[in-house]
Amino acid sequence: MKEFNNHQIKEKILFSKTKNGLNIYFMPKKGYTKKYAIFSTNYGSIDNKFIPIGEKDILKVPEGIAHFLEHKLFEEPKVNIFDKFSKMGADVNAFTNFTQTSYLFTSTDYFYENLELLVNFVQNPYLTDENVEKEKGIIAQEIKMYEDSPGWRVYFNLLEAMYVDHPVKIDIAGTVESINTINKELLYKSYNTFYNPSNMVLFIVGDLSFDRIMEVINKAEKEYGNLNKSIERIFDIEPNGINKKIIEERMFTASPIFHIGFKDTDLGYNGEKKVKKDIVTNIILDILIGASSSFYNELYDEGLIDTSFGGYYTGKKLYGHSIIGGQSNNPEEVYERLMELISKPVNEILKEKDFNRIKSKDLGSFLLGLNSIEFIANNFTDLYFDDFLIIDYLDLLSKVQYEDIVNRFNEHFTQENVALSIIRPLEV
């Protein structure tokens, strides 16, 4: 067992590994009644081209297979997994994003029994030709629902505009056509490759015993005949330039909605360097267009934007982007005003006093977040797959300097790597 401590925030994380290579992390929270467990694999919607475990040739799987597999893991031959968790007072859920799939539950009682159930059902898929076929109709309805959502379409249209080849531009759930080509054999190949202990992590937070946690996991963990220590994922080389400058679409919406995206070109690394880039970019966005900025308040007073306006940066090793968006009756004017803003001298729009204020606010927000087990668990997993421990986040944020935001602004916020997506109301 290892112990990671941060004396500044008076938090620690305990670590151990099972015989199969599954990494277990636990943050004790004395006095908390709620407990949280999240079991995650480093596998998401972008992982659709890889070499399956035990094979030599590259396999390209249908779009949406990671999300499909998430659905199917809840399938059991005779019982309903949701009912089993519910009977023990737990709320269970799961999600798939571009780079990870996670299964989680929260409970106040029967935590160890729920933990055993979580480990068991994630590690023992039950796939048949019949239940795979049945699921296609369910997921097809989900896909159609998202296709009818203007907020969803404006986002994925922007990704389509920014990215030429990278699969991040593909809808996480795939398409109705792609999921109809999924079968039991492809699901098992994907599962056996990516749901391997060395590619997964289990994080737990609450007032619990780590010895008891490890006892439960070691008992519940299944035997693996073929442990995969290295997964070969295949990605096409993404060019630096954007795919299209603008994408417009008409849908049922009361007023136009828009997303402006800045595609990242500073890629290829993980760990502290990558997480620092995320922090710095989001500080810049808060200074530039946050609710306290001059830009926001000028456009708001002119009626060009409303309170839905905002922005954030997100990314991983091989992709990244800043997105700014909201509702506006004149999205082109908002776009032009933003282009004017980023063309000004950096010392005019990124003032050191604003940097210090936003940084202090972010430090406070992170400290406040440590009171929430949901905040801790979800951020732990996301940072873990970036090769970074959440317990070191505050120290890294504290080290960010004004010069960091100046350098990042000049590199990232350029008119060469920007795209615009607009959803307009249907013409009557």
UniProtKB/TrEMBL annotation:
Listed GO biological process terms: proteolysis
Xref: SUPFAM superfamilies: LuxS/MPP-like metallohydrolase
Span of the signal peptide: none
Keyword Cell inner membrane attached: no
Peptidase M16 C-terminal domain ranges (all copies): 182-360
Xref: Gene3D superfamilies: Metalloenzyme, LuxS/M16 peptidase-like
Pfam families reported for this sequence: Peptidase_M16, Peptidase_M16_C
Molecular function GO labels: metal ion binding; metallopeptidase activity
UniProtKB keywords: Hydrolase, Metalloprotease, Protease, Zinc
Ranges where the Peptidase M16 N-terminal domain occurs: 63-175
Domain of life, source organism: Bacteria
Recorded family membership: Belongs to the peptidase M16 family.
Protein's name in the database: Insulinase family protein
Organism for this UniProt entry: Wansuia hejianensis
